[in-house]
Backbone:
């Protein structure tokens, strides 16, 4: 872990810190280095596993970026990336990854403008903090932070350095999510009251594999597993918390203007017993497999209810260890009506529009309120992963970085959304006792203006 | 309020209490007066408004009951009842209702075996306690109790008198609910993990009317309203609590064997702001209507999460002040699969049966697991109100009372289900802090055997 790069980084960041301590922090919401918009953004990627590769692929479809550097400690991922970059007729990037901290040598490169971080969770905040300190525009995969201290690290570093952080929550760009956001902003639902969302996804074949393939084929994880099973599963073994809240909560937070005229005030979380992972191991690896003896801390279904300053409630569900169809289970309810939408259900009831006491389908609503971005980019977007949403999230990142302007989902959002993990952990331990959210904006939510999501630029 | 009947009642119940205080309570779960099964049950009705009339109508379809007495302070309801009783060729009943406590004179009748109570909520526990003290088999409409003290009153009186109390929760007899209960008992869902349920019903036209018709036509309530608006709406004005939990929670409680090998341990409740009722008054009565100035205490949507001793969680929703389609929003989830079912959605996923990651419809499941009671009585049941469920709940009450045996939903159930009201009120006031459930069984839930719901008798 100790390397030349790490020592040189520490020396450099110490200088940065010293500089900051002499200067009062005037950078709140304004980047100190603002200059005219870049035509070409010089990108680097830390982590080019399955998720990072998706972002790299989308970048290679663009005319406004150069790939300056890539970093991964797995040389096979580097090779796959180099092949793709070459095939796309991009200049060959510099390579990093000789050890876990080699990414800091990447951050030393003067000509990198922006960095996309797609690594295991425990590296997220550490790498994002280092990237902001290096003066780069920072894109960070979800979840952004694992602990309350890390949530503050993201906010404090953003404010101290003036570097922007964007949390790369792709679900915020789902076509249905953006259409419903458009409806919320145009007051279709009236006074907002209640939201439901969550991550309801059978991940058992992701959490366990045979060490060769990414998904399934065995009940190994950690050192004997590969891909996400190599690092993700350990969180289920030792933490009873909603460790992955942002796919559901990100879209809802934008609808409710969280950190921009509203904020999360408190959370109560409850967990079921932990049954699913042991059952999966026994059924697929036998009761004598060493992993069948493990006691899993993470309850199979975790329910959190958040109260907001404006008097809404939000139910967030984490449900990943049981057989079930995929759903983020979105519901939006206001004084004028209600909508439920996920992959298997799209229905709405709006007073005065829908027949009393009935549901109607959402097709005509989705057409009427289709988001300008989807109207403009729908065709090119659908070639990217995850039904096109990855195009939009990277597009917003790159366009924001070219302007060096505040991103739509910033360090305060990353902190507030990710804070669900440590807060739910404490609440569950106390049978649901309410936990207060820190106000990461330091009171500024009362004057921060809502981000304008309904535009066709990005 | 003070009448001869009240004084004579007090005298009588004082004697009963004296008798009990000399005798150790050996009656736990056993009725002291058990005797051979009655062929004909002698029934009385306290309250023959819309709800009580439904029970009366179902009783008049039977061959095994006599209607000994009816009580209502509204003489027009008495007249409607008498007409119906006459038309059904039943003997004319004795009439009570000359004042609010005249029901106690009804309870003095020696030849009444069982009493059905369908009155405003604030009378429920008081009347049920008096009925049990009078030695009658007691049927009580939902919700059973308004406060924690009343929950204990039901349990204490049952134990002290040996009289049985059945809470008349009709939703427990819905065809889909009983089929899913049957599936639960046959282990279709595996280890139970998570339930959702609630009362999601736009009641604005019930809470307000013009004082002439039961539903809508104005924005009056209380003294100027009629039917439920005369008494129900006041609860919304002054209490922020889930005041009506049992339609959702009753069915879930039977699936989870609550009070019979399991119990509710704690509850966390959160409320949204109160917007809907004021909006309805302003939109339908104008902003200058006196009721437009009222501040409604009840939040529009109340979310409670209950933890059980066996490690399940239950989300209970109370959502009655907003435009929305009716739903009790049932979800049952276990280690083997999940089902969501209400009037607009019926879908299921069971591992090994359903295609991975997909939902399937429930028609074949409902057929396979149709409850013996519905197979037997389905045709005669569907003539009764509420899709036939009122036939079954009254049938269970009458058959239990004829045997004088413990009912399927007893005083402990009535107390535990109704305790959601006072507990949610305290939790909401404390932003969701967990509140402990009392153990109304005094520890006996660890040895009480699950009630056998899957039989064709009642």
Residues:
């Amino acid at each position: 872990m100790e390397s030349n790069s790490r020592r040189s980084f520490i020396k450099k960041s110490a200088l940065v810190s010293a500089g900051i301590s002499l200067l009062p922090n005037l950078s709140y919401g304004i980047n100190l280095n603002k200059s005219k918009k870049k035509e070409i953004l010089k990108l680097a990627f830390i982590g080019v596993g399955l998720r990072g590769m998706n972002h790299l692929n989308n970048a290679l479809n663009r005319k406004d970026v150069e790939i300056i550097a890539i970093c991964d400690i797995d040389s096979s991922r580097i090779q796959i990336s180099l092949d793709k970059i070459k095939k796309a007729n991009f200049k060959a990037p510099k390579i990093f990854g000789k050890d876990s901290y080699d990414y800091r040598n990447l951050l030393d490169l003067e000509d990198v403008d922006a960095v996309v971080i797609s690594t295991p969770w425990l590296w997220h905040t550490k790498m994002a903090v280092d990237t902001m300190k290096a003066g780069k525009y920072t894109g960070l995969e979800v979840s952004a932070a694992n602990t309350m201290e890390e949530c503050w690290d993201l906010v404090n570093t953003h404010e101290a350095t003036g570097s922007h952080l964007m949390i790369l929550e792709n679900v915020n760009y789902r076509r249905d999510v953006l259409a419903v956001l458009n409806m919320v902003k145009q007051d279709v639902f009236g006074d907002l009251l209640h939201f439901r969302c969550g991550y309801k996804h059978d991940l058992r074949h992701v959490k366990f594999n045979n060490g060769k393939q990414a998904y399934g084929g065995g009940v190994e994880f950690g050192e004997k597993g590969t891909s996400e099973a190599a690092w993700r599963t350990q969180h289920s073994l030792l933490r009873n918390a909603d460790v992955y809240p942002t796919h559901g909560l990100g879209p809802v937070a934008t609808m409710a203007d969280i950190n921009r005229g509203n904020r999360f005030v408190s959370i109560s979380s409850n967990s079921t017993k932990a049954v699913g992972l042991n059952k999966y191991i026994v059924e697929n690896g036998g009761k004598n497999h060493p992993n069948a003896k493990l006691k899993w801390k993470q309850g199979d279904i975790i329910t959190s209810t958040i109260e907001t300053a404006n008097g809404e409630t939000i139910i967030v569900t984490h449900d990943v260890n049981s057989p079930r169809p995929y759903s983020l289970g979105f519901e939006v309810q206001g004084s004028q009506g209600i909508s439920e939408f996920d992959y298997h259900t799209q229905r709405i009831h709006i007073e005065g529009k829908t027949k009393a006491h009935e549901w109607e389908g959402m097709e005509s609503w989705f057409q009427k309120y289709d988001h300008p971005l989807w109207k403009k980019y729908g065709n090119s977007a659908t070639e990217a992963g995850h039904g096109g949403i990855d195009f939009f999230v990277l597009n917003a990142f790159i366009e924001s970085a070219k302007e060096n302007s505040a991103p739509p989902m910033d360090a305060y959002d990353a902190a507030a959304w990710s804070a669900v993990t440590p807060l739910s952990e404490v609440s569950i331990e106390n049978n649901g006792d309410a936990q207060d959210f820190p106000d990461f904006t330091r009171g500024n939510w009362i004057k921060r203006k809502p981000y304008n999501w309904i535009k066709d630029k990005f």
Q: What stands out?
A: The two ends of chain A are 39 Å apart (CA to CA). Chain A touches chain B through 54 residues (CB under 8 Å).
